[in-house]
Amino acid sequence: MTIAETIKNLAIGAKRAARQVASLSTTSKNRVLLKMAEALVANKAMIQAENEKDLAAGRAKGLSAAMLDRLALTDKTIDSMVTGLTEVAALPDPVGEISEMVQRPSGITVGRMRVPLGVIAMIYESRPNVTVDAAALCLKAGNGVVLRGGSEAIHSNLALAKVLQEVLSAEGINPAAVQVIPVTDREAITAMLQLEEQIDLVIPRGGEGLIRFVSENSRIPVLKHYKGVCHVFVDESGDFDMAVHIIMNGKTQRPGVCNALETLLVHQNAAPAFLPLICEKLAAAKVEIRGCERTRAIVPTVTPALPTDWGMEFLDLILAVKVVDNLDAAMDHIVQYGSLHTEAIVTNNYAHAQRFLREVDASAVMVNASTRFNDGGQFGLGAEIGISTTKLHAYGPMGLKELTTRKFIVYGSGQVRS
Amino acid sequence: MTIAETIKNLAIGAKRAARQVASLSTTSKNRVLLKMAEALVANKAMIQAENEKDLAAGRAKGLSAAMLDRLALTDKTIDSMVTGLTEVAALPDPVGEISEMVQRPSGITVGRMRVPLGVIAMIYESRPNVTVDAAALCLKAGNGVVLRGGSEAIHSNLALAKVLQEVLSAEGINPAAVQVIPVTDREAITAMLQLEEQIDLVIPRGGEGLIRFVSENSRIPVLKHYKGVCHVFVDESGDFDMAVHIIMNGKTQRPGVCNALETLLVHQNAAPAFLPLICEKLAAAKVEIRGCERTRAIVPTVTPALPTDWGMEFLDLILAVKVVDNLDAAMDHIVQYGSLHTEAIVTNNYAHAQRFLREVDASAVMVNASTRFNDGGQFGLGAEIGISTTKLHAYGPMGLKELTTRKFIVYGSGQVRS
Q1: Is residue A404 part of a domain?
Q2: Average pLDDT for B397-404
Q3: pLDDT at residue B208 tops 90
Q4: What total of structural domains would you count in chain B?
Q5: Could A378 and B104 be called an inter-chain contact, meaning their C-beta atoms sit closer than 8 Å?
Q6: Closest CA to A142 of A222, A11, A37, A29
Q7: Same domain as B265, residue B163
Q8: Contacts of B97 (CB under 8 A, 6+ apart)
Q9: Same domain, A70 and A217
Q10: What percentage of chain B has pLDDT greater than the value 90?
Q11: Mutant choice from B12, B110, B224 vs A, greatest count of A C-beta within 10 A
Q12: What pairing do the DSSP bridges indicate for beta strands B364-369 and B342-346?
């Protein structure tokens, strides 16, 4: 069998199994998730032995310490997957919810029923815990799932899938509902992305290169974000203490994540007093500041910003800083350099707050709060499967509801169209 | 300039204009729509003169009478575009609606604000009235729109666009918000489908060939349906009179549309009494019946169905008829041959009605009603821009709301992530 045939058969199996999963009761789905949590604990030795094969290969290949760290299934990582399964079991089940029922002049009653999407494909890199987290969310939302992790985690991913599939079988559920693609060639991804008859949604998570590859090659709808270039705009009326808190939190609390702060915009009337204050705090936290000419005129020790620093996702202790004329100039900058991810204003001006909220196009727009809040857990969605800056279907963190859709249902009593 | 460059410049213009349209008040948008209605009337002679060029070219090319009929901008067609604009102006504006506001444990208040998608591209065939109908819906939802009609309607479409753009200019709105692509080569479509930076959504409407071409070549999300293969299942307990009404309406009221009935499934216990009844009515209405062997055993005059008749979108007075063992067999048939468009059951069995509603995967699932009801107007959405069987974002008729998305908004008072 060719790789394309292997992948297609696997997806056909997932589609068949998905029909069964879609009809499971909430109680059944929750029981399966809790049994999966137990099974991870019971099979910890096997999982860690398989993970050790990946780690050994990674060491031999010279992976960085950070990469090896992300690859490792330590006791703590396994505990956190167990907690994740338990939390997903505790979330409300979105499937079957009926809303917007109305009677129409024709006499039919029409509403919308929330239903699973079908089969969801996840394409991700290194962290094998995504295998369990994603499978749990997809199953709870009534979907089948096809998982394609990185080649460096293949033994770990297959071991985790085996544990999950054994639980499905023991519960009388077709184990094909959770599939890990055993082929590590990139050709397997290309083949998968053609299967629009079998797969309803693709979610890629990883570096921008992987995501662009998926986006350019997929016939299946893709939800994704390329990067997070988040801005904070300190308005003329912004509270300086509040601004300092929000900027320091955005930049330093976890600089390597997508909702971290990358560019600071400061109103020209706030700049003379505010910039020396924030630059001192940033310097104390070892943040490199790359400023525009107007910034450097106020704080001369700042490194000059290169044109490429605007719109750059540093993912590091580096911050671009620009002085802008006013709210409109700040919003123009965000239109030009933003990534539709997260944008925040610090202001005490009511009209400016409302304009920023309405006019800025991003998956989350904030007044007087840290960009770091753009997160499914923080927003109350429960666990999230990623953040989308695709505007279709889901814009922002994707929780269980975003893994479902709504169909129309009609209750009639013999009505016909006249 | 190459075709690709022309199309890109045009899309860049639409994106810039879309930012202005997104910020317009409801009052402004409605005024523009009503002025457009007036302008169509005022420019009727010019529009019809341009339309006559397309009709003459069509006649010379030997287009069928039906094609020429769809191409013609008669007084009646123009009246109906005017009515359409007035109706869209009267619809509630979805933009700005805020929902699901909650306070989170962190102290931030989070909710979702409905916002325009940005720029929407419509790709369609022959009927030039789509130019006006689609532009109206996209504008009301706060979007820019790029329109690509068929080459046979190019003079009509450019004339209509000119009228709409003049109104935009007169109202101080960037006329690039409504663009008709002046290039009729298919290369223009291919070029447009690459512009994911400028265009947020593509909606193709037309034959299956066009839609597959768009779907296979687009990097931009596509909402579409390939075809409508709609089934009615007459259950053992179904009321025969009601079933006859629903089947006759589905098959004969307007056989050429996507929500017309294509296949009838009959429970084996209902078949002996029901099939002679319905076949007589269908024959009287000149419907050709193509039946399975079990159907022919009961009504021997029926034409034998070929394997290709199952799942066929006849769009004509032809109906495929199959006797099935039970509800599960009916649902299995629909899984295999359905098109996720519209499926109906005629039953008086409560449990069967509920199972059918829940388990059948289609954009609209109906109990005891005609498949012909799957329509934006009938469902209460107002005008529709098409029906989607893509499950992401919109499943079923797409009205104004489906031309928007929701972003997260956060009201804080200095909160940071701990």
Answers
A1: no
A2: 96
A3: no
A4: 2
A5: yes
A6: A29
A7: no
A8: B113, B114
A9: yes
A10: 95
A11: B110
A12: parallel
